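Quick review question:
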């Protein structure tokens, strides 16, 4: 059962979903920049029969609150991961972060090793060596959810229509005049600074998996191999038929890879 909730003990308030039970492990799934937790819905539904699966809308994204002070630093997002783990008494948990979510998870894991059982970075440019995360065009207004779906389809050509439609519905909000825009606070992108997290990555002491789609232009093969070599014991998996969103593009291969890693790491 999908349980929705909010962390209200401090601002901004954070929205999360909570599924399954921790029979084997607790997974915390973190989305990318200007995205939302709903892009993990398919994976969370598939994994909840074995794990407790929690998804988080990062501050300024999805149904979480915006920061009135424009506090959207790497540290702010990483601290919110701590708010979630402590608020729901989840640690030590497995952090699974997509794109920017993987960067935030890496920063948190480096600073809070006792709270993290394992780390999975999904097409995350940890060393900030690429041109950056693909960013949704906030200034673009769509006239319908169908247009939003078509737009997301250009970013995720391998993903199923069902997955993209679900993401589109949660990613956007309707304004007067039949205009749909992203829910994400535009200040998130304005404040975004891509930090090189290689030192934090190299100092991790938990099992780690680098997972990328072979067609990705965000995390190149060479960069993924460099991450593996920089952290003793790290594993790497590259999935065929996927780009930047492998959990939505090749769900079967993604799930099998994640289960393989967890079975051999926890």
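Suggested answer, residue by residue:
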């Amino acid at each position: 059962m999908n349980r929705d909730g909010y962390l209200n003990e401090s601002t901004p308030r954070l929205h999360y979903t909570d599924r399954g039970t921790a029979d084997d492990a607790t997974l915390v799934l973190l989305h990318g920049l200007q995205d939302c937790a709903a892009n993990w819905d398919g994976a969370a539904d598939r994994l909840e029969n074995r794990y407790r699966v929690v998804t988080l809308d990062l501050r300024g994204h999805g149904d979480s609150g915006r920061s009135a002070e424009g506090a959207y630093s790497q540290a702010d997002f990483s601290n919110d991961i701590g708010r979630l783990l402590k608020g729901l008494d989840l640690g030590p948990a497995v952090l699974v972060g997509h794109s920017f979510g993987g960067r935030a998870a890496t920063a948190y894991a480096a600073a809070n090793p006792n709270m993290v059982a394992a780390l999975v970075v999904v097409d995350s440019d940890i060393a900030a060596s690429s041109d950056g995360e693909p960013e949704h065009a906030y200034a673009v207004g769509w006239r319908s959810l169908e247009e939003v779906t078509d737009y997301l389809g250009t970013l995720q050509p391998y993903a199923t229509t069902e997955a993209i439609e679900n993401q589109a519905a949660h990613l956007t909000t309707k304004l007067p005049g039949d205009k749909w825009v992203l829910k994400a606070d535009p200040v998130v992108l304005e404040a975004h600074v891509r930090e090189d997290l290689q030192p934090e990555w190299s100092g991790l002491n938990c099992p780690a998996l680098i997972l990328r789609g072979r067609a990705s232009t965000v995390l190149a093969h060479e960069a993924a191999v460099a991450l593996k070599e920089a952290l003793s014991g790290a594993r790497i998996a590259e999935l065929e038929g996927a780009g930047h969103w492998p959990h939505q593009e090749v769900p079967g291969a993604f799930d099998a890879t994640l289960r393989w890693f967890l079975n051999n790491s926890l």
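Why it works: DSSP finds ten helices and ten strands in the chain. The radius of gyration is 17 Å.
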